[in-house]
């Protein structure tokens, strides 16, 4: 394992926003273009990012490279037990079913998982814009009461 800080360049030399048979707007790939496709729901899944821009792929590989460097540094410093222990803790945090609505973005991510992954001090787009403007605020006590009633 190398101690690579920057991910490898594996992007294409040219890029086009317009796929061959796309009905999306050329200036905004992935958005439903009413003039081309007509009125109605988009054939694309709204939860999945459609953008295939090289910068987005580069940022994802940057995070993977950073995590690999972190685990390799831990392995070289403390031995193989430390990265294995952290991987097991992260797996347990991901498999946990109870995620408080007020601590995470509507139960989508876990605060514990963010702390273990080292993303607890970063603010992303999803942290600010959660699309839950119409939902009522639920306190931790209400969630605990609901969980205890189910048991």
Automatic annotation (TrEMBL):
Short name of one Pfam family: UMP1
InterPro entries noted in UniProt: Ump1
Composition bias, Polar residues: 12-25
Biological process terms in GO annotation: proteasome assembly
Entry annotated with the keyword Cell division: no
GO cellular component: cytoplasm; nucleus; proteasome complex
Region (Disordered): 1-34
Amino acid composition bias (Basic and acidic residues), ranges on this chain: 1-11
Keyword presence, Lipid biosynthesis: no
Top-level division of the source organism's lineage: Eukaryota
Keywords, in A-Z order: Chaperone, Proteasome
Family indicated by similarity: Belongs to the POMP/UMP1 family.
Name of the protein in question: Proteasome maturation factor UMP1
Species annotation: Rhypophila decipiens
